[in-house]
Amino acid sequence: MSLFSDNIRALRTKDKISQEKIAQSLQITRGRYVKYEDGTSEPPYNILKKIAHYFHLSIDLLLSVDVRKIDIQDLLKLENNRLILPIQVDQAGENFIEVVTQKVKAGYLNGYADPEYIENLQQISLPFLGPGKHRGFPIEGDSMPPHEDGSIVIGRYVENLGEVQDGKTYILITKSEGMVYKRLNKNKKNALVLESDNNFYPNYEVKVSDILEIWEYTCNIGRSDKKYETNDIESLKSMILELKKDIHTIKSTT
């Protein structure tokens, strides 16, 4: 027996659906479907995809999570059944915000679609953020001032690429780069240009097919109160402006 076979049997039994009815929906014989439930055969990808759509759950969930241990009603379903996210609320009915700390960041790329992983993340509540699914992500490095290394950026989940706006900042979860926080530009047909606010770092592209999740910036949680220092280019600009003012003052007094 496999977790997958246990899951589809549990889902079918819970909804009181016959094996014959599911087999007809999948356009296969009942005998073939029975083998999937008893674990003696594994479905090919095209059938696996049909089964996931039939039960309105992600393939990740059917293969890796025991659905008997979670409440399906407490899961947020995202577009095309690509993945699902658990929703937990506080006593006032507000959604909790899961925070991906530095300690568990490395596991997010594998656990983003796993309800058990998500439910074990630290949680906070920020009612002022308004509607939408929010999550917190850690910031590394100095590429996006004034956000500092160790700060937490809260993002709202973006359900489709059409919501992304040029010039705004987003947390991207990608297959190749992992977790990054950048300012986005959509001037490429099948790619996004990622821009750093620190001019020291060059822009680069990420293919749309490489993106797993996009979260739009909503607020920042930082612990440092040190004064933000401008970079060398900004300092040079300020010096030039001050020099122009001095020259203008000298000319006006002579």
TrEMBL record:
It comes from the Bacteria. Keywords: DNA-binding. It holds the Pfam family Peptidase_S24. Residues 8-62 form the HTH cro/C1-type domain. This is Helix-turn-helix domain-containing protein.
